[in-house]
Design brief:
The chain is mainly alpha-helical. The protein contains 17 helices and 2 strands. Helices cover about 55% and strands about 5% of the residues. About 40% of the residues are buried.
């Protein structure tokens, strides 16, 4: 069973890596130290992939939302909001588990063998609410209220918090551009400190950024319980052995509440179940049918 689980994990990582390469395949950007600004940049990508990454072909929906949320006359604002709702309603947090480049980085960091791995700690559940506060404050309220004459807001989350942007965009652009290296200051240092702390945390805690910080994960989690892509537990087959709960890095117990808001649809629970009680896929059920399955 252990071998089966490992095969499943590396299959997911290959999908994550392939998507990361496809969405960051503008190789000229790395050679020239410039950001791609072609027509594809208007398209949002489902994962947290920094707009400022030299190889990025599309936009991060969180960064795009911050830029246009202050002026709802912009059609792009409706597009971004619609994109988030569409991806969330269709896939829930599947994008977090399978299509987010920064999620892949955290997954790989956590595989580094260390004597201490923290699965949970006191205050963990409360701290997970922080990502909703960050979504409301830094992604919605501040960019919505503090705008320029064009109605464009400052991307406060990207500017002050996002470690993915620092890793994928900030560091690379600074290394490739002399003018940027001479202009770096306290903000660049602060963002690198946050990145360093995130990397250290990811080595001992499974996906700390996803659990506590990520506003994109917060958006998708709102749709997770009712998304079309979902898991279901066959209560007749389930023996409540606890294997699925023990293997879940997000500390979800599928035997009690499958499709939990914290679930990233990685599929570990499905692979570890000896009774094959857990299945997953596109489930076009009505709400009463869903409630019956969950009960």
């Amino acid at each position: 069973m252990g071998k089966k689980k490992n095969i499943s994990e590396w299959h997911r990582h290959r999908v994550q890596a392939l998507w990361a390469l496809l969405s960051n395949s503008y190789l000229a950007g790395f050679a020239q130290g410039k950001i791609y600004r072609g027509p594809l940049k208007k398209l949002c990508l489902p994962g947290l992939n920094c707009y400022s990454c030299p190889g990025a072909l599309g936009s991060c929906p969180i960064g795009a939302l911050q830029a246009v949320i202050g002026n709802w006359n912009f059609k792009f604002a409706f597009y971004v909001a619609g994109f988030l709702m569409f991806i969330g309603a269709l896939f829930g947090r599947f994008a977090c588990g399978w299509l987010c480049p920064f999620g892949l980085i955290q997954d790989l960091l956590h595989k580094i063998p260390l004597p201490v791995k923290i699965k949970s700690f006191r205050g963990d559940r409360i701290l997970r609410k922080l990502k909703y506060v960050i979504l409301l404050l830094f992604v919605i309220l501040l960019p919505l209220c503090l705008t320029d004459v064009l109605g464009q807001g400052t991307p406060y989350f990207c500017k002050l918090i996002c470690p993915a942007g620092t890793l994928e965009g900030g560091i690379i652009l600074v290394l490739l551009n002399q003018s940027m290296r001479s202009a770096v200051g306290w903000l660049y240092a602060w963002k690198n400190v946050l990145l360093f702390l995130t990397i250290l945390a990811a080595m001992v805690i499974y996906r700390p950024f996803c659990k506590y910080i990520c506003p994109l994960g917060a958006v998708y989690s709102l749709f997770q319980p009712v998304a079309v892509f979902r898991y279901q537990t066959d209560r007749k087959k389930c023996t409540n052995c606890g294997a699925c709960a023990n293997v879940c890095g997000m500390q979800v117990n599928p035997a009690e509440k499958i499709n939990h808001a914290e679930c990233i649809c990685c599929g570990k629970c499905k692979k570890i179940c000896k009774e094959n009680a857990i299945s997953g896929g596109m489930q076009f059920f009505t709400m009463p049918e869903r409630e019956k399955i969950q009960s």
